[in-house]
Write a structure and sequence with these properties.
Elements: H1 2-28, H2 53-56
Length: about 70
């Protein structure tokens, strides 16, 4: 069936295009979680004065009807 060959050809072209697009995007992508600039020697690290882990835990509110 000629329709099958056309379908396979179009599918292959689309998949190759998507692979090329993903490769291009990943190659040009900037790292969103990049490390901050190095701190000067006189500055203290921000995490040095952070509270305990208990301060970082969110308080959980009970749902309606629960005790």
């Amino acid at each position: 069936m000629p329709e099958t060959n056309v379908l396979y050809s179009v599918t292959a072209a689309v998949i190759l295009g998507l692979i090329a697009w993903v490769a291009t995007v990943l190659k040009q992508a900037k790292e969103p979680w990049a490390r901050p600039q190095a701190l000067s020697q006189g500055a203290a690290e921000p995490s040095a004065k952070a509270g305990s882990d208990a301060d970082a835990v969110a308080r959980v509110e009970p749902k309606c009807g629960e005790k």
